[in-house]
Amino acid sequence: MQLQNIPNLKDLDANNFFLLAGPCAIESEDMALRIAEKVVTITSKLKIPYVFKGSFKKANRSRIDSFTGIGDEKALKILQKVGQTFGVPTVTDIHTNEDAVMAAAYVDILQIPAFLVRQTDLVVAAAKTGKTVNLKKGQFMSPEAMKHAVKKVQDSGNSNAMITDRGTMFGYQDMIVDFRGIPTMREYATTVLDVTHSLQQPNQSSGVTGGRPDMIETIARAGVVNGVDGLFIETHFDPANAKSDGANMLDLKHLEKLLTNLVSIRQTIVNL
Questions:
Q1: How far is CA 173 from CA 142, 176, 198, 207, 208, in A?
Q2: How many C-beta atoms surround the C-beta of residue 30 within 10 A?
Q3: N or C: which end of the chain has fewer CB within 10 A?
Q4: Domains of the chain
Q5: Which helix (H) or strand (E) element contains residue 39?
Q6: Is the Cβ–Cβ distance between 137 and 165 less than 8 Å?
């Protein structure tokens, strides 16, 4: 796909990686706008093409009492407002065919969760909206298998597919990133590395997913060095009290330093 096909994606001539970043879930309008404003300020200064990310609902939860959202239409309208306020594209994940049609009216990119990327009907429904489709690589799938998910999008008449690697299961409660998969998946589509989800520690006995945010820069640096097209980073101004995935999110106060370092690495790589 061509990144130029994503509406309002700026600074494409800077030869940087692009960034999908924001909270795990939309908790409120104030929260979303506050995070978006900070990230837009940072990425504009560093000339990083930026997409605001936020889940309008969370369907894959370990426990029935886990936070799932503030209401579908309410959250989608907040995503739309973020896009309109800051002039940036937005992305959210979908879980059903009906979600695809509904969310497409509010956001620019539809994301297929890793657990659902083999669901043909869901992938086709997303593709048929005409929106860019972000396919999260299943934790159980090889990089080579993602070519089939991409082809489902293409065979549905949509050439705008990208792949996001979010790690591979390593035992029951840990994830690893196999960086050999990046060049493989880039043969099929634009490829993104989901840094923060790759550091999850799922299936905890408490029913609340753990994580290793201290390793975010390590994984992100390796992704940039290995030529990934984009990075995916969940961030929040108060991760400890975030309603979803707080254990692996980046504290927003650390984002500028991280991205500054990553841009320096990127500039070194492209000049080799």
A1: 19, 11, 12, 12, 12
A2: 9
A3: C
A4: 3-270 (3.20.20.70)
A5: helix 29-46
A6: yes
